[in-house]
Amino acid sequence: MARKSLPDLSLVLTFLREGQGVSLADLGRLSGVSPNLLNDYEAGRRKLIRSRLEHIVSFLGLGPETIDATLARLEANRAASRVPRDAADRPSPAHRRIEAVAGRMAGMAAEFGRSVLSLLTVEGEALQERQRADSLWARLKRRPPDERQALLEDSRKFRSWALCERVAAESVEAAADSPARALELARLALQIAELVPGEETWRWRLQGYAGAFVANALRVSSDHPAADKALMRAKKLWEAGALGDPGFLNGVWVLWIEASIRRAQRRFPEALRQIDEALTADQGDLRARLLLSKAQIFGALGDTKKSTAALREAASLIDKNQDPRTAFGVQFELLFNLCMQERAAEAEPYLREVRELAERLGNQLDLVRLVWLEGSVGAGVGRTAEAAAAFEQVRREFAAHGIAFDFALVSLELAMVLLKQSRTAEVRKIAQEMLAIFREQEVQREALAAIRIFCDAAKRETVTAELTQRVILFLRRARHDPGLRFEPGQEAEAP
Question: How many domains does the chain have?
């Protein structure tokens, strides 16, 4: 189904902000209008009136005449969209209209006027193509994979850069539920990129873009060597095709994917550099997702405070209606961090919102992890019976799915509850079950060694809450860094 057309004033705000190179967050700081409200204005979710727009753009150093000129350009754009281009040796009508309107823009430098109006031409074309891509994807997604490929080969209308972009985005959304489907979609996007008409450099650029999503799907599939190779190929094509890009593609996705792969490879300093570069380049579209990734890197490094700070910033930007997947990830990680910092009472009021997001997404493992979070909050605020029941339910689910690390982590949280009640025999049984699943799954040596130390202490009935907490903190880091060593004599660090 095609997107609804955005109100003209919403488009004007977007074009003028981007023409000045100002992010939503920066404009929010300048104008005193929250970035979320600005985002709603641009997306057409909140009505933007002329006087309000004039107030906002005044903080960009622009007057009302800029709005008039931009509205005129929008109208010219719509008329021009049906007019064929002139021969290459003379200016097109669209270009002549840009020059004419730029000349009438009172109070503005002509070069800035031309740059803004040229941006409008590019963005107008992009909007039209993306609307067509919505319709094409609605048709394509109903077909099985083999029929999709046949359609690409038989019908030129599916050979669209915007459809490639849309299918690549669908790959990211599918990754949470099905890595195999994510990979199938990313490869379909790459196939579209190879067939798109136009200059060869443009196809290189598009193949580099789609190839990065193939790399991301391989990462989600835990094939890290293949992901790295795919990323290297994609980056070469992406860079080789830079001159052929009219400005349609958002390169921040490529930076985010590289950061995600570096994090999976435990190359954390490189991952942080890529995320910071992406945050600098981002115009607000992916900021919450980037901050979530940054928080996850800090979490893998054991820096819960920095992770929490990044998540709080992301939570202030995210639109849960527009991007429920990222909203769920941000809120879930934030509440878990608060529990790890013994601040479960702060997390409790937000549980309902996270549950609503999980139920909306409908992913079974999301719902299982939500029960885990509810158990952690319950344990933190003293509802031990409720917490123990939640942890037992989650353990059964993780055991059935063979998810060893999460099984061990929730088991250790259950052990903490049982230790407070002096139920050492049950803790001993839990320890033996953890050791069995770790051996069955051939979990890395250091993680297995930490579980053995816990098991030995449980057998001797000398296991303490302090040791249990140290094993929890270690396993949270070791799942991302298999080379990390567990030192049984070290004191627990505060999260």
Answer: 3
